[in-house]
Amino acid sequence: MSTYNIVVVGAGVTGLTTALLLSKTPANKVTVIAKHMPGDYDIEYASPWAGASYMPFGKKGSDHAEWERATWPALRDLAEHQPESGIHFQDITIHNRLKDQNTATGQWSAELTSANPWFKDFVLNFQNLPRDQLPPGIDNAQRFTSVCINTAIYLPWLVSQCMKNGCVFKRAVLKHISEAAETHHSGKKANVVVNCTGLASRTLGGVADDQVYPVRGQIMIVRNDPGSMTSISGSDDGGDEVSYIFPRAAGGGTVIGGTYQKNNWDPLPDPNFANRIMQRALKLDPRLVKEGQGVEGLDIVRHGVGLRPARTDGPRIEKDQVDGVKVVHNYGHGGFGYQVSFSCAEKAVGLVNEIIQQQHDRAKL
């Protein structure tokens, strides 16, 4: 049987999911190379800092929306049948303020906070809250059952699933994407390289995509558990500040955030932002602390900053050839990498298969 050597560059949620789907075909021999691996916490490595939850942002009818629709069944299946993945069901309440519609956070969440969103027919238990149940200043709100992902469990779980299928993991730092073709664990040149380097695609040789930019998110993880997830379209603290609360599975703590700061590379948690994040979280869901405690009642595990790998024209999922190396790109997913991970990986795998089929056909001539 013919075998095909594939190198996936990047070990965030996009790279790991792509490697997992590729490795399900026995003929594919997959090597994953990355500067950062699950267990690392680094400003360049966005996936560990994610909330992470399923909250669709894509505009109705867009590729983004279809990717989110197509990924939901996989996340739902993991929550139902493989709780060891660190994914569990959580109710979420989304609050919308019309005055946020022209802010960075309001535009980011416009579809999510719509009173009639496209995803209402397939997420679980969707309902619009009656107007008499809305908090002051809220124009509409919705509630549904989503999933929350404990990234500290899920990313290593993806690694373990890849390894069960024979994937080999190697740390490496590349200056040029074409170098990846020489890093396959077989010692032979790769048939295809899959570029899942996220924000690094901005500077990686042979890619150097100037459409890629960071969107800074500052969060904190606390031990407090309010019992369900909550989010809102914006805040009065600034157009790029927002509030969300995500209790993670398996003792992962509760993520509270956050910020949506485009082109901000600052890797250090800002104490002023941290204070505002805590104040907003308590206002959004007072159940976080006992009555009368205030922010002093928040038991902080850690502060963190992640740079969402956004791209001006949206994710790049396409075939390429760089210095004679066949490349498939899958990067630029911004703050929605988890909730499009499976569908975008499936598209990337389809492109890899096209390249392999072409190589196979030429070899027969």
UniProtKB/TrEMBL annotation:
Domain FAD dependent oxidoreductase: 6-347
Gene Ontology terms for molecular function: D-amino-acid oxidase activity; FAD binding
Alphabetized InterPro entries for the sequence: DAO (IPR023209), FAD-dep_OxRdtase (IPR006076)
Listed cofactors: FAD
Record GO cellular component, one term: cytoplasm
UniProt binding sites for FAD: T197
One Gene Ontology term from the biological process aspect of the record: D-amino acid catabolic process
Family annotation (Pfam families): DAO (PF01266)
Keyword match Oxidoreductase: yes
Residue sites binding D-dopa per the record: Y244, G335
Keywords, alphabetical: FAD, Flavoprotein, Oxidoreductase
Keyword Endoplasmic reticulum listed: no
Family: Belongs to the DAMOX/DASOX family.
Protein name, as recorded: FAD dependent oxidoreductase domain-containing protein
Species the sequence originates in: Penicillium brasilianum
